[in-house]
Request: fold
Amino acid sequence: MPNRLAAATSPYLLQHADNPVDWWEWGDEPFAEARRRGVPVLLSVGYAACHWCHVMAHESFEDEATAAYLNEHFVNVKVDREERPDVDAVYMNATVSMTGNGGWPMTCVLDHDAAPFFAGTYFPDQPRHGSPAFRQVLEALVEAWRDRPDDVARVAEEVRGHLRSASAGVAAPVGEEVVRDAVRRLAREYDDRHGGFGGAPKFPPSMVLELLARRVDDPEVGPLAVGLRDGTLEAMARGGLYDQLAGGFARYSVDQAWVVPHFEKMLYDNAQLLGLYARWGTPLGDRVARETADFLLRELRTEQGGFASALDADSEGVEGRFYVWTPQQLVDVLGDDDGSWAATVFHVTDAGTFEHGSSVLQRREDPEGPGAARLDGPDGVRVRLLAARADRVRPARDDKVVAAWNGLAISGLVDAARLLDDGQVYLDAAVAAADLLWRTHLVDGHLRRVSRDGTAGRHAAVLEDLGCVAAGYAALAGATGDGTWLDRARALLDDALDRFRADDGGFHDTPDTGPGAEQLLHGVARPRDPGDNASPSGLSAVLHALVAVHALTGEGRYRDAAEQALATVGTLVARAPRFGGWSLAAAAAMLDGPLEVAAVGAPGDARDALERRARRHAGAVVAVGDGVDDGIDEGGVPLLSGRGPVDGEPAAYVCRGFVCDRPVTTLSELDALLSPH
Reply:
């Protein structure tokens, strides 16, 4: 019979609804039950597209004997890390501090007050590779709980103390030299041969690339920043990390050269990379941005207008099967001539670059002349391979709508809409997603973290949700001139300032009052993680929203809050720029003014050209309007107020650092104003 997870909204939890394990969702109830029974709580954290989560589920949670042992000796709690990032953050911190590393699936064992006394990640069903079997681990924990309660209490208290003492670090200003030094530090970690930073596995460094994009014009580190950014963007787009047939990026590369990905596709990665490639300003960037935007609309958009969280790595129980090819499979679809040619273009070899003689498609160079049409034409190789691939069993989709990641998608789609030809479809999609978040996720005046099938989940938003959605709304306000989106961005930021702000001007990831102020979790530690991971931290997300809303409104309180929050992560970003790229990108924008540009005039090529040139300047806050009646109606965007065409021609108004230049009407004049003073 289904367990308690059958009523969950999370697709990950629903994957476990038929386990013989008597799972509970996170909350006060399972801890009360554990106290009544006198047993510990086993916490298992994962997410729907996690390959090793599936493996552990099959080996252990679907096994009747293992489940019986878990049910007898533990109260078992299953958490979707994407639905409850606050829970995940606290126990991942504990896991890393106790074991030296972390990841998913995450397995923690807790006392009745939710303090962990054991933590780990994946455990196999049999001892292998130096790891004990899961059943051995469980038996040792039961023995410790029963026979050594003082040791258990001591460890739990030590970990609780560590979690409570964790802080954002000593406040320090983030000035120009800190930002420049971050670029120099990144250069020392750069992979000159393959692009990206560090070794394998290699993740898309989206937020670091945003920092580099904001320093390409810096007279001291600009050439360095250009090389790091361009080398990484090209390497990712041409390797196996990128889906060369349908667009969209995989989660990470298992090797250093971006050849073999871990095949799951996450919304947060693609949303961030979409904006980066759209603003890159190269033919490759435009192609990848368009293909990625089309991937979002085709494969991740839900019926309600939002965007699903992820596509799984597996299909038919095999990782990557949907995406890889052998030379013979290419010939079977394309014929001998085109099949052999496609194998060369996509680097599909007889030996294979993946498993069992199969290869991940790469596109290390673009065919020219007739080869371009042969590859990308209406009846080209890509179209035929994509049609053949559509007959394969597709990876599963995690169709929950996460507020933060949809906020990132809105921002990325706005960039694609305003920078690519025929981009209105992307702007329409951004508006639809933004409207869904406001209609469905806003409940009793407060944002909810997730929805599914048009119904909001029960979990309150965390800080990253407020920051990413507010930033997306600010981007829409600039792209449409509609002040409604600006008012909504303000409302979310005011909630963040009211309930999430810390005494030192930084932010906690959860509120102190109202929805989401969960005392069970805060009794262990109130989450506060300012470091970026795969997506922006809550603090860095709010930083960008504060900067954008200040630029659009001129309200100083938002700038003041941004400066105070930035100082709280000064030590972190100076020491570890790879984990503070988005905060550093906000700092770079603030040091530039931020650059504010209003492009006004009758819609058409001339105004579009001015707007595009401004948007290519990373970090600029851009608003577009028609300039009718030399002003705006009440409820509009203040950055557009009083600004109209010049001598009947569309014009750009440029301000930075609270000082405005005269309006200009040509691209050369605008370029002069956008360049560093």
User: Anything to note?
Assistant: The longest strand covers residues 41-46. The mean pLDDT is 94. Residues 323-391 form one domain.
